[in-house]
Design goal:
Layout (H helix, E strand, L loop, with lengths): L6 H14 L3 H9 L16 H11 L11 E6 L2 H22 L5 H9 L5 E7 L8 H9 L2 H13 L2 E3 L9 H8 L6 E10 L13 H4 L12
Antiparallel strand pairs: 1-2, 2-4, 3-4
Amino acid sequence: MGLAGAGLDGLDELNDMALETIDLESVDRVLATARSVRRKLDFEREVPREVILECIDIATQAPTGLGGESWRFVVVMDPAKKQAVARIYGQVLEELAQARGVTIKPTQQALVARLHEIPAMILVCTTAEGPSEEIAGQVAYYGSILPAAWSLMLALRARDLGATWTTLLSSRQAEVAEIFGIPEQVVNTVMLPVGYTKGAVLKKAERLAAEHVTFWDGWDSRDGD
C-alpha cells in the first residue's frame, strides 16, 4: 500500500519503523563534524540543482514558530551575481575587522579570495514580519528561520558538500536585495557558500565537555556539587 492509502495509522507505523532504524553513529558523526569549510573545496565541480533541492527539502522540515513556513532560499550560480556578492562580503569583512581591531584569519582570507568562484551560494531568507525590539520577539523571529539554515548545512555535510555559516551579508540588506530583486519585507539571514569538499578532513572540534557547561535546577549548580 502506498503512502496515499496508508492513513494516519499507517503513517504512524512508518514513522515508528524509521525511528527504529536510525543509525545513531552516522547521525552523531554528521552533527559533530559539521565544520565551516573555507579552503579545501572543489571550485571546479558543479553542484547539481537536484542535490541542492534535496537538501532544502530536508531543511524545511526544521521546527518553526508562529511565523510558519516563512523560509525562502535564493541559490546563486550566476557568475556575475556571485562576483557582486563576493565584493560586498569582502567589504563588510574588512570594515568589521578594522572596527574591532582584529586581523582577518588566513582561512577567512582564503574564502574571500575565491568566494566569487564558489560553485553555489545559498541565501536563507525569511518572509516573516520583522522582529520586535524585545528580546523574546527577536528570539522567536530568528528561532523560526535559523534552524532551517542549520538543517540545510547538515544536509549538505551529509552529502560531502562543504559550507560556511556566514552572516555578514545581513548587514547589507538593501544592497543584497537589489542584486536579486528581493522584496523589501524579506530579510536575508545566513549565506552558505557551497562546494564539494576536496581533501578536507572534518572532525570533532575541541569543545568544553557537557558537564562543564550544563547546570541542573539552577545557575552554576552542577550535579553532585
